[in-house]
Design a protein that fits this description.
With 307 residues, the chain is mainly alpha-helical. The protein has one domain. The chain is built from twelve helices and four strands. The strands form two sheets. The chain has a two-stranded antiparallel sheet with strand order 1-4. A hairpin with a 2-residue loop joins strand 2 and strand 3. Converts cobyric acid to cobinamide by the addition of aminopropanol on the F carboxylic group. Pathway: Cofactor biosynthesis; adenosylcobalamin biosynthesis. Keywords: Cell membrane, Cobalamin biosynthesis, Membrane, Transmembrane, Transmembrane helix. It is found in: Cell membrane. GO terms for molecular function: ABC-type vitamin B12 transporter activity; threonine-phosphate decarboxylase activity.
Amino acid sequence: MLLALGLDAIFGWPAALYRRIGHPVTWIGALIARLDRAWNDDAAPARARVLRGAAAVAVVLAAAVLPAALVTAALPGGWAGVALTGVLAAPLLAGRSLHDHVARVARPLARGDLPGARLAVSMIVGRDPASLDAPGIARAALESLGENASDGVIAPLFWGVLLGLPGIAGYKAVNTLDSMIGYRTARHDAFGRVAARLDDAANWVPARLTALCFALASGRPAAVLRGARPDAPLHRSPNAGWPEAALAHALGVRLSGPRVYATGAEAQPWVNAGAPDPDAGAIGAGLRLYLRMVAVAAVATGLVAVI
């Protein structure tokens, strides 16, 4: 998994390759979208939709895990097998992509180019960008950095270390299911219920490990964790609040708070409420902290491999 982390950090997923063949996550997403259209009948009773959603989860998991297991079984032993596993796992990490997307928000924001910053942040968050002022843009970017540090880096690493290539493939399937159908909307509340619960379970440990890695990377682990502990449960997600709260306390800024989506306004409590709003400089500091956090995770992964 260390090789996968390194390859992702250096190369990411090249744009030319994406244009030619897409990306493993987009392949999973295409299957989910097809099952959603075929099996999620708005007229069906809620119980039937839950069962159909569970069946969709099983199909998607099988489509991701079984090929990964077969490939793993076919790999040679020794260092060659380890190296090939790293090469195959690298596309399922999103560390480089996350860094680059958040950095694209900081650059126009630092120039005072709010339209450019709104466009950049709309690529990584679901809220209405037109409603965001400069602090709102910075908060949205940092919240995405915190949450996706878990979803895109630590959680795939965790499941990869635990279960190898099938583990990381299965995790990405679960996470993509949640991002597409795990919403409490009229269409997906029942159909996506199993996907959402499974994603909560899959991220429970990684989210807290991400908070710990952010705290260690800050150089003030006790203070950051002490501040994050009461704030993390305020988040509507049982997991996302942990890395977000740790990031907020490590940077000394407030995050979360009220926001506007296409479906309307949502009132959410502040995280690190007494701190100032972030700005473009805070995004830069957050990105530097993120890189140190990934380094902490790499060291931990190496120690686990040695043990």
